[in-house]
């Protein structure tokens, strides 16, 4: 899983659990450690909060939901293993306080004096005319889209002698979507405000995430596709799977926005 997307999913899901039902949001991945420091900065730079302080500030201002926004570009799958590539724009806070996009920036500490990564979410207030189109597809439709994308790319993997990816990632994820395989443990606890269908969809996304650097679907499979004269098909289906995975991940954590 792309680390930036994972953090956006974590913030959106845990935040919604807290805003809707008061669920505990404690999570070591969002606390200050020697590896990571996450801060939220108000527009104009006047105030700065850590994870728990930020949620408390949002609640006090009448925020009711968090929404993951943005879409993956057609070529994002090729560089998703690198910082600044492949993740949606950020998280939008919604409610009586108005709407704000909290846009993420990942920056490596050059001197590693305190933490390896400094992640800053900076507020950009959204005017009514700037909201743009928003997608809320039924979870059943998203699951069907992902199942089809996995079937297609699995057939390609088998055809270019890369069945390892079908057997260990694509097919197990399809079985999860069909309810024929036990769901794997998500990397974080999905709050109870989410339906089982959202949990199943998110599990399948994490299971079938094959994009990255060395040793990933981006590594040797391109040469296998080239050798079998199916390079164009590999590029098309890889882009389609990536876009579908991001769409489904976003749809799963956003499935409580309209409740």
Morphology call = globular
In helices, the fraction of residues equals 40-55%
- Please give the number of β-strands: 6
Radius of gyration: 19 Å
One letter per element, helices H and strands E, the order comes to HEEHEEEEHHHHH
Q: Would you state the CATH class of the largest domain?
A: Alpha Beta
Number of domains: 2
Can you tell me about this structure?
The protein is of the alpha+beta class and 259 residues long. The chain has two domains: 3-130, Roll (Nuclear Transport Factor 2, Chain: A); 139-253, no CATH class. The chain contains seven helices and six strands; from the N terminus they run H-E-E-H-E-E-E-E-H-H-H-H-H. It has helices spanning 3-21, 51-60, 139-159, 163-177, 196-207, 221-227, 231-253, and strands at residues 36-41, 48-49, 63-69, 90-95, 99-108, 117-126. It is globular, with a radius of gyration of 19 Å. The two termini are 28 Å apart.
List keywords for this structure.
six-stranded mixed beta sheet; single chain; 41% helix; 2 domains; 259 residues; Nuclear Transport Factor 2, Chain: A; 16% strand; alpha+beta
């Amino acid at each position: 899983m792309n680390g930036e997307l994972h953090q956006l999913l974590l913030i959106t899901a845990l935040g919604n659990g807290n805003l809707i039902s008061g669920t505990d949001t404690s999570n070591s991945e969002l606390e200050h450690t020697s590896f990571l420091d996450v801060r939220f900065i108000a527009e104009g730079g006047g105030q700065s909060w850590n994870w728990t302080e930020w949620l408390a500030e949002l609640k006090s201002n009448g925020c009711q939901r968090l929404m993951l926004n943005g879409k993956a570009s057609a070529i994002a799958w090729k560089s998703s293993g690198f910082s600044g590539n492949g993740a949606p724009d950020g998280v939008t806070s919604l409610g009586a306080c108005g709407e704000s996009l909290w846009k993420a920036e990942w920056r490596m500490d050059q001197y590693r004096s305190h933490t390896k990564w400094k992640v800053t979410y900076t507020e950009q207030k959204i005017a009514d005319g700037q909201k743009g189109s928003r997608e809320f597809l039924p979870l059943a439709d998203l699951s069907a889209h992902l199942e089809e994308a996995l079937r297609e790319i699995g057939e390609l993997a088998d055809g270019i002698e890369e069945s390892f990816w079908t057997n260990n990632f694509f097919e197990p994820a399809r079985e999860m979507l069909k309810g024929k395989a036990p769901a794997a443990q998500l990397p974080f606890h999905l709050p109870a405000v989410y339906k089982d269908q959202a949990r199943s969809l998110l599990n399948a996304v994490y299971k079938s995430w094959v994009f990255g650097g060395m040793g990933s679907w981006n590594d040797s499979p391109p040469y296998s596709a080239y050798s079998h004269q199916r390079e164009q098909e590999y590029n098309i289906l890889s882009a389609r799977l990536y876009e579908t995975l991001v769409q489904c991940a976003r749809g799963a954590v956003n499935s409580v926005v309209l409740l």
